[in-house]
Fold these 2 entries.
Entry 1:
Amino acid sequence: MQRDPRAYLPLTEAAFLILAALARPKHGYAIMQDVAEWSGGETKLGPGTLYGALTKLMGQKLIRRAGDAGGGDERRKEYVLTEMGRRVVEAECARLEAAARLGRLALKLKEVVR
Amino acid sequence: MSETKTAVRFYFAWEAEKEERWLEEMARAGWHLTSGGIVFRFRRGEAAEVRYRLDYRNEHGEALREYVGLCRDAGWEHVARFGGWLYFRTADAAAPELYTDAASLAERYKRLIALLAVLLVVNVSGAARFVDHPGRFDALRDAIYLVQTGVVLLLVYAIVMLGLRWRRLRMER
């Protein structure tokens, strides 16, 4: 019944940042702002792209709708990670860490051999 | 000088960029879009440097309101609608494009192709009957089947044009 979170990897950079942003419930625009900030302006998310990504991640059950943002602004739907979404982010972090370690080690070895 | 202007223009589904550039030119001349599609209506205003973008979506009702709200938050004003086509405008140079990666823009072409494919299927049986036996039926039915044949040819052309765009986008990384 429980899928292996690694089945969802590798994530695109946009998907990873969106999932990371949704560790806390957020509405769409807040996600766009966080993604821009965290990537130092490198990754800009357009609303069409974001909406498509949110729909896909919902379909994959990695995120779900949280309660609406307070104040009754019904257009501001909030999203948040599901349990599986959380595990996928953890798995991707582990994969990226291992990759970074391997890369640095390989570069070090090259220097020693020379 | 009158307050409104009307223009009739036909743009194919894969000519969205051409249509956007024309609307932007109109805005520079002080004409701002109020409704579009094939008959376009503009209202007089200040000359402005804006971006127009066309989008095609299958969402409606609640989901569409959410999408439009998200675009508004990003700085894009929803100014007009023509079936599934949505016209957006922004004066904010910092507003990101609606689609910021090739994959999601490719999805837009895919949606259009899916719509045209449905229309194609609906018309293909009439076209097949005409091509098979032109002149076999009464005048009215023949005329209808002839029109359907024309529609089918146009749809196939449109699907091929959109398909080429879609493929090019999908190969981009």
Entry 2:
Amino acid sequence: MPDASQLELLSGNRMTALGALDAGCRFFSGYPITPSSEIYQTMMEELPAQGGVALAAPDEITALAYCVGASLAGYKAMTATSGPGWGLMVETVQYAVMTETPAVIAVVQRLGPSTGGATQGAQGDVLCTQYFTSGSYTVPVLAPSNSHECYELTQAAFYWSERLRTPVIVLSDKEVGMTSESVNSDSLRRWPVVERKPFSKSAKFFRTYACDCLEEPPAFSAVGGRARVAATGSAHDQEGRLRKNSPEVLELLIHLQTKIDAHADEISLIDEEPCENADLLILSYGISVRAARAAVRQLRAQGRRVSFLQIKSLFPVPKKEVVRAAAGCKRVYVVEENLTGQYASVLEPIVGSERLVRVNGIGHMITPGEILEPVDAT
Amino acid sequence: MSTPYLKQDSALPYCKGCSHSIVLRALGDALEKLQIPPAELAIVTDIGCVGLADAQFATPHTVHTTHGRSTAFAGGLSLADSVLGEGKLKPIVLIGDGGAMIGLNHLVNAALLNLDVTVLVHNNFLFGMTGGQNSAFTPLDFVTSTTQAGNTTPPLELALCLLAARAPFVARQLATDGNLAEVLAKAISHPGFALVEILELCTAYATRWNSLTGAKLKQVADRCGFQLGILRDERRPRFKDAYREMTAKLRPTVARRVRANFQLGNLPRPIGVILAGTAGERVQTAAGVLAEAAMRSGLHVTLKNDNPVTQGSGFSLSEVILSETEILFTGVEQPDVIIVVSGDGLKELERNCILDQTKHDTLILADEGLTFPDVSCHILQLPLRKIAGANLAALAGVAWWLEVSQIFPLQALRVALEARFGAEAASVKTRLSQLSHAESAAGHGH
């Protein structure tokens, strides 16, 4: 039972917005879409009062393009949407990837495809928010399972977005976003507010995409600052010039992946309830974590030796943690609210298809009972 | 003398005779005339032959973007700089007729907001870079690779669109105009949104397939009915001016924190409470008050609301879980308490099969006016709507149930009511207490 500390009833969506504000987000542009509209509304109410810019965009493409423009000018920026809006934003997110422009995009999933069910939760956009670039460059994707984590992982999203100069996605869903729960603000994990590595030498030596070390992003200078910026969505050399197939251009493309891979261990965020000599592992992310934890408790009460692993950083895939948690287990149950087991397909080569069991469903939150069933059948 | 804006030693990448070269030089001349510090300029280029222009600039910032979206990126730069920065950055968008149609909504939006952005539309009546296909700006009868028998769709009158979008500066010029640099300079120095549509010559396709020359450009404009010259040059407040004024009056929201300082009553295991009623009748308010009262008593709480996609009508449903320990699964699979106060609410419970999910000891507390199908659990009907009124019926149900169940002290509910209703709280409490008296007077329901 919580002590006599201060509590607040807060939805995942509101916590996403509060996490962004506390992370130093200064610019928000959005378009309302169920079930993410509360993030947009909260930012419209709170950000201007804190001296930032929040404004309505006529559509999702504009919303994200405004954010990327603001980020090119040097400011931390965010937008929020759901699956149908994400589809519109994909081209612009690719632009952020190629230009190494930080931006945080909150995607609050709902049932698809297409308009689908606006007021129905789902976890069906996992692969869509990862394999959307021509070239499948890894973009960090963080998945909160409750209101606390919406705050913490949005903070983490800004941290990595600025640190590595990349878009980062906070992937929740209708149930996480629109469920309110009692939150103790003192118990929130706050991330340090990080600034992009600035270019600090004389302006005449600035090259927009200069990379001494491919594992680190280029030093940043704002459009509007003293050093001349040549940003471009074309494949470019270190000057920012379009040069087809030159070795320097190819090296910079590889760098887009290298900078993420090199920090994969640091980005890795998991939570776990390990069990010694476990022969079963239940693994989940996002909303399904809550049912999974409940199922694990019930199984342990029945005397089963079962470990639990929550993935908070879906991408880059925390391979080491998955391998470690699954070691010695006969079965690995991957619980997610989509039809085909999207994250399971990512884990299959890591865990092995003989061991991996999918626990899936659509149109309702997966219940603890639906997890117990296949486990009991083993 | 400062470095020229355009590279002096660079061969332009355009075809021989292409008027992009003329326009680019006119832009360079305009910038030389205005002497805007290069660090305060961002040349934002779209896709197409016009998108090769950024490589020709020596000193201003350049941002090469995606097709049609250049104005939106430029808008983001301007919004951020004008409110958060020094407000000196001037993005100049170089876009073709292809980009202008793809991004027409960005042009309109930037004009309506009056963002400090200059857009130069290089209209050569077709898509040059990709092989001369027709665009939304291709004149009637024009031959392009995709209208080889002559175009049959009339072209867009872009300037009129932007005038309708309240753009304070709109001009249409020919690339061959002697005063082009002067007009560009006027547009760029205009405080706010400015658009210049420049009619151009594509010598790879347009001039070859149509008898089009520099001298004949004006005839094309005439045939299309396009007015030339500066069509509007006015002032109106820019986005940043209105924004600063508006935000000066705002204050951040105060967090609604509560202290958990009431004694816990009686809650051996988590319970799920469903409230069902009609949209607009404060069902969700009742759930919120219940949740906050429970928090004040040291309970963990989750709360979810449901209503039809049409926000203001139909049913309103809330699910509240109360627990001494951390709440994991947030679904109420078998409700412990259902408080239903209207026909809309009851219909939704039936439709959603919630009534089928009751257990034998579920308590259904309902308004006396409702008729139920068969259920296996106990239904208690009270004059909730009659006594408390439509807007407080759900809250009355909550209060009645709390008094009876003693999950946590009623005083916690009273404090939560005060916090939520403020000045109204006293009359709300009176109404709720009337139910308690009426119900004991009438005896328990069926």
